[in-house]
């Protein structure tokens, strides 16, 4: 009966994700991980460089907020029903 704590999650995918997908993916993960004891996003800020490329888009909390994928208040959601079509039975 010990709640699970989720650490080091981010928005990376194994495919070329669209902005619209990342917007929903962020809410879906927060909704799932909030069911446990808490969560930590990896990483708060990723430095911009040519070598890093576009990593900050999916790995930086600050960049995720700037791009609109993540909410300013970590407890808020853009769409708290983002998972409903996938978990509700008809």
UniProtKB/TrEMBL annotation:
<dbReference type="GO" id="GO:0016787">
    <property type="term" value="F:hydrolase activity"/>
</dbReference>
<dbReference type="InterPro" id="IPR017853">
    <property type="entry name" value="GH"/>
</dbReference>
<keyword id="KW-0378">Hydrolase</keyword>
<protein>
    <submittedName>
        <fullName>Glycoside hydrolase family 5 protein</fullName>
    </submittedName>
</protein>
């Amino acid at each position: 009966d010990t709640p699970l704590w989720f650490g080091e999650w981010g928005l990376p995918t194994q495919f070329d994700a669209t902005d619209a997908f990342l917007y929903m993916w962020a809410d879906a993960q927060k909704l799932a991980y909030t069911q446990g004891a808490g969560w930590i996003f990896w990483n708060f800020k990723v430095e911009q460089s040519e070598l890093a490329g576009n990593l900050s888009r999916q790995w930086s909390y600050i960049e995720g907020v700037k791009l609109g994928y993540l909410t300013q208040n970590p407890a808020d959601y853009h769409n708290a029903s983002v998972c409903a079509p996938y978990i509700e039975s008809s």
